[in-house]
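queue> pop job 88
queue> type: inverse folding (structure -> sequence)
queue> payload:
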């Protein structure tokens, strides 16, 4: 993911590099006329859609209902569709310029356009984005199992609801146990392909969350326990206008997938399928996001928390309410535990390539591998214990590194146009994306920093 390869690729025959750019599955060699029995012969359309969709859907889904609270249901759903369309356009430009520059990674095309400095900046952004994402995952897991008081009102966790309040089900101890017995063992696997079964289970658990949430809403509608949702934002003064921009980093984070597009493209038997795969994945994920936002906001209204899972600790007014609450929360907490190592893998590789670019591959150096794994997991653990809300992480990581990866870098590559292939439409769209991203995210950072300062005071 961090090293560029400028050798042209045949769409059906590949060489297998022994570095961090290796695909999740083995590639055929140029010397093979026919694939051996059981040998990988290119990823399928369905498998690629599954992988890219898994990259997109993550912790951002838990914060989307809170964006409906800020924007209103009508405007919020419209913004989800708008960001999805903008994401598709940025990925299309990124892939087109990668083809011309014969770059097989995002870092490679950045290096092709802006030299070594461009590649380093990209790697730094990956570190901020993935580290922020992992901290969000751990915060949500802590909220679910041990509860949260980030809004000033305590929402009990699953363990507290089952056993009462004890030292051993406190946030720090629970996250420490999860880190030692779940995150560390899974993150210690050197090949990401070893996680394919846990990733499949993670997707199934995310679907369980959505289906149960939708079922709760439908049941409450039958009993008359759902009020009409607010369709438009509440705008009363200039501060409320600036507050609308705070949702931009959350929406950008929800659709970030650019750093895995090249990996999936490299595995395809027919690389011309990558654009339909991107469109299908974005359509699928947008549908999941819209349904989650709709049902989550419909269920909790203006009481929706930054992490909607924390809302599932009260009587929902339907039969088996508390049982359903626990199933919803545990299923998604387990989902995030299983997705954690997939995001951790590129984080560790990019950090190692940034610090030790001339060293032997990380996979062959057990000492370096162990130290980097322990250091990064420790950093994530500390961040999850000292940052009170996922909204805070989304605001700062989403408004800086994530927006660069998703919009600013692809647009900058098109404007740089080293190979002279950018159209007028590309340049207009690129300027629009950069201006929108910079303006919206500067306001988001300012609004969030001001709110945090006032809270501390």
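queue> result:
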């Amino acid at each position: 993911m961090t090293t560029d390869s400028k050798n042209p690729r045949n769409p059906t025959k590949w060489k297998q590099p022994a570095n961090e750019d290796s695909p999740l599955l083995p590639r055929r060699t140029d010397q093979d006329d026919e694939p051996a029995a059981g040998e990988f012969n290119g990823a399928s359309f369905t498998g690629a859609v599954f992988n890219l969709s898994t990259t997109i859907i993550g912790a951002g889904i838990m914060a989307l209902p809170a964006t409906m609270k800020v924007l209103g249901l009508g405007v919020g759903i419209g913004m989800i569709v708008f960001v999805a369309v903008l994401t598709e356009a940025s990925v299309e430009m990124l892939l087109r310029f990668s083809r011309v520059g014969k770059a097989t990674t995002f870092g490679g095309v950045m290096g092709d356009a802006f030299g070594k400095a461009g590649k380093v900046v990209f790697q730094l952004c990956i570190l901020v984005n993935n580290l922020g994402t992992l901290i969000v995952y751990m915060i949500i897991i802590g909220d679910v199992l041990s509860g949260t008081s980030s809004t000033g009102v305590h929402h009990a966790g699953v363990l507290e609801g089952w056993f009462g309040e004890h030292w051993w089900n406190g946030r720090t101890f629970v996250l420490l146990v999860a880190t030692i017995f779940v995150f560390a063992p899974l993150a210690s696997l050197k090949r990401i392909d070893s996680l394919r079964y846990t990733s499949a289970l993670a997707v199934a658990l995310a679907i369980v969350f959505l289906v149960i949430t939708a079922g709760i809403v439908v049941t409450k509608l039958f009993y008359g326990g759902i009020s009409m949702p607010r369709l438009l934002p509440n705008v009363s003064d200039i501060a409320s206008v600036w507050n609308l921009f705070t949702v931009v980093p959350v929406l950008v984070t929800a659709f970030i997938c650019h750093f895995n597009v090249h990996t999936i493209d490299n595995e395809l038997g027919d690389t011309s399928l990558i654009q339909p795969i991107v469109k299908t994945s974005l359509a699928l994920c947008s549908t999941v996001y819209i349904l989650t936002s709709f049902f989550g906001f419909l269920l909790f209204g203006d009481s929706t928390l930054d992490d909607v899972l924390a809302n599932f600790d009260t009587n929902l007014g339907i039969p088996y309410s508390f049982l359903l609450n626990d199933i919803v929360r545990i299923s998604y907490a387990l989902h995030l535990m299983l997705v954690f190592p997939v995001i951790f893998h590129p984080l560790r590789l990019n950090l190692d390539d940034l610090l030790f670019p001339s060293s032997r591959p990380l996979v062959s150096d057990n000492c370096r591998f162990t130290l980097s794994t322990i250091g990064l997991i420790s950093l994530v653990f500390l961040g999850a214990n000292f940052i009170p809300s996922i909204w805070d992480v989304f605001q700062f990581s989403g408004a800086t590194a994530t927006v660069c990866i998703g919009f600013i870098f692809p647009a900058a590559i098109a404007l740089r146009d080293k190979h002279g292939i950018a159209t007028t439409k590309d340049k207009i769209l690129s300027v629009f994306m950069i201006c929108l991203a910079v303006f919206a995210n500067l306001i988001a950072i300012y609004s969030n920093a001001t709110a945090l300062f006032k809270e501390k005071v």
